[in-house]
């Protein structure tokens, strides 16, 4: 452990900065080992302090000048620079040196495959120069970039290019000016040799915007989908939110070394190449949809994040929850709303609920943070989006948009808080959100239990709802939340009933605000079937004692696709649970005829979207099932998921096979209808592959595939069903693609999730593959991340070999890239979910990490929380 334990920051301690910086002039003289940075800032005192504490890490200070004079009244601290006895207003000039080539943490200024690039969010700018590295200090930036002409023909930064020229025969420079005041986390610089895809967009009000996507040489043929997605994003934001772009140029750079998905730097987004590069030979349909979503997400940040930014990092969900909501709506408006909703809900019910129940549990607006990078979480992003969605449900689109407009009227050009956002929604709608605000401060997942009572005499149907949130590690006391609870009632013919309460018609969204509350519906002639938490109207667990018949009925009669899917999931959940019991009692895995018939009915229904059918037939993941238990029986759950899949496959063999063959391979195109057909065809293949007789179907699909979606589907089938042809397919793929890390990531992910008993040995061997590198986060996530998260049987092997392997990797990444290490460690934090023997083995690894004398703050925060639990 480090000498002095890292210090936590608390939301309640917020204070405005001692000084503001209104304007910055930066010069970068780029050299691998010693880049010279000059920062000239216009500084003004904001409180009565004449001392200014600037943040800085790993910086070699060269000189400090105040108003043109050498300044010696300063102290260099471990993580900053303290300047004293300052005038009220002054020009501060700092010169310092940094070493991009030795920066493996990928934060600040670093080299990605020979190109310079920056990542400043959340607190990376302090690795570039001494600065007030906090989001409530907004300045305009002028940036001069100087580098070698031949190696770095493109020199980029935020805003507009205002000057370029030569320094000498070898070096050139470009000057950029960004007119929009911004916090330093939105600063970006890129220098490299790229191919550029160019296009143009004219905004609604007539502004011509140059669009430029920079990719590694030779990758131009993989940038088209990103460009189309960008143009679609710009158009959608004008149409749905009335928001236009505000500069004359929008640049996107794709880099191979990146800790996250992408970054919304003003006018100069930096992207993980995974979310830019795609063609049919290299990318799957899922990749294409991911690119659309992330391009949209970063573009939408221009208003929700950049024009209005966060006052402090505790407010992160202000921009992230809202921007995820916006990108989800974008994808839903362009593609299938139901399929998008289903996939978003799977993320909440799986990994987000798991996070809520873990030692890292925190509200969407955290109260206490040691390392900010640890709070770019499913809770802040995905649950944050659900919280915005609930406001949208409560207000309706019209009032919600009025709230957005008021929010921008009030806060454009400033750093705001979550409270500011809720106030705008409240003031624009007239709807009281007092209790609703608890969603921002309360962590954990509420469970809503429902009891129904039909009274034949009074013709009333009563739903009694109770809500309860279990204590979480960060917060013992829980309060009742304002839960929008969307309900529909169906009569026995499947007609939807108009809801009536207290003599009048009511809408479908009940405001459930008490610990326990009963809603009585009148004029209900016969006992109805309720469809509840429709559209997943709140991020809660629903408990209701549905009969199999009711669920099968809803799968047919529910008016909306999401509700049909959800009924199917509840039916599966019942039998996954009962079969886990059975397996633990050494009994066979079985599924009743009714369940099989319900799913048969879905496959055979040609009125349904094939993509939707594929979702209905997809079993819950191991991780989602694990969330249903306090202590999960790893092997039993794995056996049941495998067994249930096999029963459905054998029982529905004819239908699956007929469907597979009816959806023959088409010429490849990326549109919803084509994607949907491939999704269903490949879903059928996954089931069929569980039966030996269909192994040739899998290898045949691999042989003739004309696109990566179908190639990967064949490999996934061979991998998860451990078919004899698996090795052959894997070898052929690696022969074709070993030169391309991004394409190999799919192969690495299959190695990681390989259920066979030598998986760990294979994973270790893969680490010597020419395409693998522990310094590339994408490779690490594909191979190691999938082993830890997608291979429950082998990762949780009773010997502890999986845990020891994870420990080794974490100790190595702790030094080179703590951000990546900190994401990788999450499954180990949840040790309480496993039996005592496994717990003990995991704790050994956590203790080893804790004992390291250079443990990074990122891991320190998580390891200590987990061990304190
Ligand atoms: N703001 C980015 C997004 O939501 C997130 C991000 C990108 C990030 N890179 C990062 C966060 C590095 C922390 C560290 O798109
Ligand atoms: Zn974001």
From TrEMBL:
Transmembrane segments: none annotated. GO terms for molecular function: alanyl aminopeptidase activity; metallopeptidase activity; zinc ion binding. Keywords: Aminopeptidase, Hydrolase, Metal-binding, Metalloprotease, Protease, Zinc. The keyword Protease applies. It holds the Pfam family Peptidase_M1_N. The keyword Methyltransferase does not apply. Residues 444-544 form the Peptidase M1 alanyl aminopeptidase Ig-like fold domain. Its cofactor is Zn(2+). It is an enzyme of class 3 (hydrolase). GO terms for biological process: proteolysis. Residues 548-867 form the Peptidase M1 alanyl aminopeptidase C-terminal domain. InterPro entries: Aminopeptidase_N-like_N, Aminopeptidase_N-like_N_sf, PepN_Ig-like_sf, Peptidase_M1, Peptidase_M1_dom, Peptidase_M1_pepN, Peptidase_M1_pepN_C, Peptidase_M1_pepN_C_sf. Residues 42-186 form the Aminopeptidase N-like N-terminal domain. Its EC number is 3.4.11.2. Residues 230-439 form the Peptidase M1 membrane alanine aminopeptidase domain. NCBIfam families: pepN_proteo (TIGR02414). PANTHER family: PUROMYCIN-SENSITIVE AMINOPEPTIDASE (PTHR46322). Aminopeptidase N is involved in the degradation of intracellular peptides generated by protein breakdown during normal growth as well as in response to nutrient starvation. Belongs to the peptidase M1 family. This is Aminopeptidase N. It comes from Vibrio qingdaonensis.
């Amino acid at each position: 452990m480090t000498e002095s334990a890292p210090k936590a920051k608390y939301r309640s301690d917020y204070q405005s900065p001692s000084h503001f910086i209104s304007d910055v002039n930066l010069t970068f003289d780029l050299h691998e080992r010693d880049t010279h940075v000059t920062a000239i800032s216009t500084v003004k005192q904001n409180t009565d302090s004449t001392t200014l504490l600037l943040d800085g890490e790993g910086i070699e200070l060269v000189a400090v000048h105040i108003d043109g004079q050498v300044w010696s009244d300063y102290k260099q601290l471990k993580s900053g620079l303290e300047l004293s006895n300052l005038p009220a207003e002054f020009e501060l000039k700092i010169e310092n040196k940094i070493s991009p080539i030795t920066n493996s943490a990928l934060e600040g200024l670093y080299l990605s495959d020979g190109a310079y690039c920056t990542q400043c969010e959340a607190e990376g700018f302090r690795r570039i120069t001494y600065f007030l590295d906090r989001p409530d200090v907004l300045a305009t930036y002028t940036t001069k970039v100087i580098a070698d002409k031949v190696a770095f023909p493109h020199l980029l930064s935020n805003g507009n290019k205002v000057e370029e020229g030569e320094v000498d025969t070898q070096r050139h420079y470009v000057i950029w000016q960004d007119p929009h005041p911004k916090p330093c986390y939105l600063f970006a610089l890129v220098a490299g040799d790229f191919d550029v895809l160019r296009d143009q967009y004219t905004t609604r009000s007539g502004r011509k915007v140059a669009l430029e996507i920079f990719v590694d040489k030779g990758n131009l043929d993989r940038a088209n989908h990103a460009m189309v997605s960008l143009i679609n994003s710009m158009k959608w934001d004008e149409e749905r939110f009335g928001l236009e772009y505000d500069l004359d140029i929008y640049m996107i750079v794709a880099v191979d070394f990146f800790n996250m998905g992408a970054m919304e730097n003003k006018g100069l987004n930096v992207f993980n190449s995974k979310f830019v590069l795609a063609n049919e030979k290299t990318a799957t349909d899922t990749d294409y949809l991911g690119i659309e979503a992330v391009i949209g997400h970063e573009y939408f940040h221009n208003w929700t994040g950049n024009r209005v930014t966060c006052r402090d990092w505790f407010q992160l969900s202000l921009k992230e929850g809202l921007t995820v909501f916006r990108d989800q709506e974008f994808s839903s408006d362009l593609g299938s709303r139901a399929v998008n909703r289903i996939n978003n809900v799977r993320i909440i019910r799986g990994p987000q609920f798991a996070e809520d129940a873990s030692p890292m549990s925190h509200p969407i607006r955290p109260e206490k943070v040691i390392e900010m990078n640890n709070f770019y979480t499913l809770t802040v992003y995905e649950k944050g989006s659900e919280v915005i969605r609930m406001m949208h449900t409560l207000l309706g689109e019209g009032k919600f948009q009025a709230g957005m407009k008021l929010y921008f009227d009030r806060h454009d050009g400033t750093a705001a808080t979550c409270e500011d956002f809720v106030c705008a929604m409240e003031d624009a709608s007239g709807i009281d959100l007092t209790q609703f605000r608890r969603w921002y401060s309360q962590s954990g997942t509420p469970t809503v239990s429902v009891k129904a009572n039909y009274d034949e005499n009074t013709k009333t149907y009563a739903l009694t709802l109770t809500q309860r949130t279990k204590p979480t590690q960060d917060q013992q006391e829980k309060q009742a939340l304002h839960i929008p609870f969307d309900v529909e009632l169906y009569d026995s013919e499947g007609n939807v009933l108009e809801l009536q309460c207290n003599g009048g018609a009511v809408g479908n969204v009940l405001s459930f605000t008490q610990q326990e509350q009963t809603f009585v519906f009148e004029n209900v002639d016969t006992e109805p079937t309720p469809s509840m938490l429709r559209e997943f109207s709140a991020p809660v667990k629903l408990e209701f004692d549905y009969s199999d018949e009711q669920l099968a009925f809803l799968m047919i009669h529910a008016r909306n696709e999401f509700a049909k899917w959800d009924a199917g999931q509840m039916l599966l959940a019942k039998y996954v649970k009962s079969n886990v019991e059975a397996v633990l009692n050494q009994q066979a895995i079985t599924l009743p005829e009714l369940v099989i018939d319900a799913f048969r009915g879905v496959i055979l229904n040609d009125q349904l979207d094939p993509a939707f059918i594929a979702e209905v037939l997809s079993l819950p993941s191991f991780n989602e099932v694990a969330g249903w238990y306090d202590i999960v029986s790893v092997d039993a759950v794995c056996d049941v998921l495998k067994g249930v899949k096999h029963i459905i496959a054998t029982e529905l063999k004819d239908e699956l096979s007929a469907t597979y063959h009816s959806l023959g391979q088409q010429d490849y195109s990326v549109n919803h209808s084509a994607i949907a057909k491939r999704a269903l065809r490949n879903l059928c293949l996954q089931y069929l592959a569980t039966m030996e007789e269909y192994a040739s179907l899998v290898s045949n699909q691999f042989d003739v595939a004309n696109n990566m979606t179908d190639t990967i589907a064949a490999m996934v089938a061979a991998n998860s069903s451990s078919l004899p042809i698996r090795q052959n397919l894997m070898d052929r793929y690696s022969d074709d693609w070993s030169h391309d890390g991004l394409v190999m990531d799919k192969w690495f992910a299959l190695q990681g999730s390989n259920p066979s008993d030598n998986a760990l040995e294979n994973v270790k061997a893969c680490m010597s593959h020419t395409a693998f590198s522990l310094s590339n986060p994408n490779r690490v996530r594909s191979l190691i991340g999938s082993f830890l998260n997608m291979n429950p049987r082998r990762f949780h092997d009773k010997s502890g070999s999986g845990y020891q392997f994870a420990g080794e990797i974490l100790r190595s990444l702790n030094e080179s890239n703590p951000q990546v290490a900190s994401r990788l460690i999450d499954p180990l934090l949840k040790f309480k979910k496993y039996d005592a023997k496994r717990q003990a083995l995991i704790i050994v690894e956590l203790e080893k990490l804790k004992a390291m004398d250079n443990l990074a703050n990122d891991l320190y925060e998580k390891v200590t929380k987990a061990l304190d639990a």
